[in-house]
Amino acid sequence: MQKRPLGRSGLEIAPLVFGGNVFGWTIDERTSFSLLDAFVDAGLNAIDTADVYSRWKPGNQGGESETIIGNWLRANPGKRERVLILTKVGSDMGQGHKDLSPGWIEKAVEDSLRRLNTDVIDLYQSHWPDPSTPQEGTLRAYEKLLRAGKVRAIGTSNYDAALLEESLKVSAEKGLPRYEALQPGYNLYDRSGFDGPLRDLVMREGIGVITYYSLASGFLSGKYRSKEDLAKSQRGQGVAKYLDERGMRILGALDEVSARLDAKPAEVALAWVIAREGVTAPIASATSPDQLASLVRAVHLALSPEDIAALDTASA
């Protein structure tokens, strides 16, 4: 499978990233292992997680997703060379606040490396902005990790254009490593946070982009079309905000393009993100073999200019 450069990091990823938030939350270790095996066997190579996944589940402490990935790597010694591990730091892991302080990063990276059963994290990402820590302090902490060989590249998530531009300025002025990748929320419905100044900035600076919420919490799968449908899954209530005129217009366009291509709406929605200039790859999760097979089909789905125009118009 053809891979795409992730900014100027030197890393290359296939055009779809497996979202590890489901590991230890909605699927157990055995199911996670089988899906990871199928993902790699399909030629895909990037797995995204975070230290905080899935702290929100009752009984969990955080680190469950990283631990499952680490156990999978331990059980499959040859797989580490075939995958890139992307994880994040900075969420509240019990400190009571978002934390990108040098001391916390120094501790958190060791915990992640141990859980992931690896000597190096391919992409280490600031999960959330930390207003209490100067960007220079965070970047100097990352510089130490890069020099020590514990991290290959750094990225950030949930930064707006002003914050990302500020970080790039600090990197340039202080001779510090820069963020080579960005994770914004982005999909056919949620476009305003990335399209515009942020997209212009990453394209100008050659920064890789890995989108999350690429299916709008499942809304773009087409299975939620009324308030009655929200009870179909535990994620349903997060979809209610999409049940408006624009959301229905987007689903209508997805239905039309899907019928034309003999594909599922979710596959078309992911293919649209994959084709979007400025995006390296979307993140998507799967909890069953059928869902994973659908993700793989999305990677190989070729949208025509007419298909893209129809989706752009509906989602404008």
Question: What's a quick, concise take on this entry?
Answer:
This protein has 316 residues and is an alpha/beta fold. It has helices spanning 29-41, 64-75, 102-116, 135-148, 161-174, 197-205, 245-261, 265-275, 289-299, 305-315; strands at residues 4-5, 12-13, 17-19, 46-48, 84-89, 121-126, 151-157, 181-183, 208-211, 281-284.
Q: What top-tier CATH class of the domain at 4-183 fits best?
A: Alpha Beta
The structural class is alpha/beta
Number of extended strands = 10
Please tell me the overall pLDDT: 96
CATH topology of the domain at 4-183: TIM Barrel
Strand order of the largest sheet: 3-4-5-6-7-8-9-10
The geometry reads as: globular
Secondary structure tally, helices: 10
Rg: 19 Å
Q: Could you give the order of the helices and strands? A: EEEHEHEHEHEHEHEHHEHH
Distance, first to last CA:
31 Å
Give the low-confidence spans.
Answer: none
CATH superfamily of the domain at 4-183: NADP-dependent oxidoreductase domain
Helical content class: 40-55%
Query: What is the strand content?
Result: 5-15%
Largest sheet: 8 strands, parallel, barrel
- The CATH architecture designation of the domain at 4-183 is Alpha-Beta Barrel
